[in-house]
Write a structure and sequence with these properties.
This protein is α+β, with helices and mostly antiparallel strands. It is built from 19 helices and 16 strands.
Amino acid sequence: MTETATTTATMTAPEASTAEVEKISKNKQRVNELKARTAEGISDIFENNKMQEYLDVMARFHDYSAGNNVLIMQQNPQATRVEGYNAWINDYERQVASKEKGVVILAPDYFKKTEEQDRVNQITGKPMFGGDGKQLKETIIVTIPYLKPVTVFDVSQTYGKKLPAHKSPELNGNVKDFDLFFKALKEAAPYKFSLAEIEGGGKGNCSFKNREITINESMSESDIVKAAIQGIALLKARESEDAKSHELPPKEPETIFAEVEAIAYTVCKHYGIDTTGINLERVSEWGAGKEVPELRGLLDSVNKAADSLIKGVDSKIIELTNDRLPDLTPPVPEPPQDKPAIFGNISYRDIKDKKHYNVHTDDAPKIAAELEAQGVKFSAKEQDNNKTTFAVSEADSETFKHVEKTFNIIGNTAFADIIDRQYFPHDNNTAQKIAAELETQGVNFSGRIKGNKTTLTIGAADVEAYKEIEKAITGQQIIAEQPAKAEIYDNFPLSDVPPPEPPPLHSELPPPPEAPTTPTPPIKTETPVKAEKTAKKEPPETPAKAAKGKENEKPTPKKTIKQRIAEGKTSDKGEKQKAEPTKTQSKKKEEHEI
């Protein structure tokens, strides 16, 4: 029983491979660098009066951690919406533009490994022994969490399908959607809300005993909404104190008020409400002289409270309007199509012992992002043939190969272990479905992703099983593709036209055709008698001399050997003799005419 249970568990949650463990170990240094950078950023926010800049970022990325908001602020403070490379492609049908450098943040992940421990009775909790008196053992799977660096890109760095535009409440001055928004605030708040006259002209009161918030109804709609948010922020700050009261000493009043100001500013900024009157100097003054862990604690509390309130209001707006969440993403102009570009994190000339690797241009940004996350120095250049060439040092060549394989290679069997390989190309979505079914049925396969195509490699013994799966998913069968024999010459394409054959030797030329029987018309000359006498005194006229005497005639262009063969001529001499008849031939023609 134990072995069966252990085997099943191992199949559903496989142990981390050696490569994954090495990758995690290598990431630790990069993670520590980002943590140190975050600590420096937090100190800079409080010491150099950058709280408003930081909260502006948090207002747009309230569902990101405080630490990641610091990293976004340091690398791209104007970002409005960030996603991973694959998320932009798969979820939004947008592509990251070339030469764009992403923002590196930290993301949680985990891996699983097997451990052996003593088996205990689930009811009594006592150890269990076998018939031989030995303690029974069992194998368990342990989940180990860790942080890893990931690269994200802002919407302004992408192009493609337009993002859906949604209406958002107009919350400046006299609020157009005041009734809707205020109702959503009331339903999201943990206390009761009411509007009433406040003696002395105050903004409002919060009664913890009666669990009620009262807002001065004589204010403008914008001020009413702002005061309501401040009241809820106060409750959120108290909630966090009550939740931790059994673990930590109670918060100082100044700490609570600093949190209230920061929470209110973040929420108001998120919805476009005027933030006049919110005192952020109170937050900076509170942080004077405090250490980074305490400063980080306040930012974490503000982040959690603001995120909780924004999500609560948004969910109520959806319930009240049956509409989607407001999308505050500004319109992004489509970037021009870039020409082949150079990108990377180091100059090409600074890479020692260079190694070059060609990848498909569509895969280049995600490989670059992973290399960046792992701290690998590289330079890359887009080629005109839809390929991108990466240059890395010899010391990083194995890391590059592993990164490329992570993105481009799929399957449950090494390519080299597949016997009598046959190849089946598909689009990526179809290939993923087929691969999942092959995995389920235990069919050995390997696959390589290239752009939007994936080629699956199957052994001859498994082709029939593969075809059944393929037909069930696609409704048709794909004929196996044979690998290109001249794949090594990818960069040197061969011409489809065979080279011309060498001309035949003179001895190989065909014999000349017989002279035509039909007489040709005589050549008329101005003084034929004189020409005849001249011919008697001088040797026979050569073709060269005859041509020299024809000053008014244009020379006949010389034809190639193949052209002459096609016309039945064997030499230049024969050709000219045909064009200029000899003296004897002229005499015969004259007699024939008479």
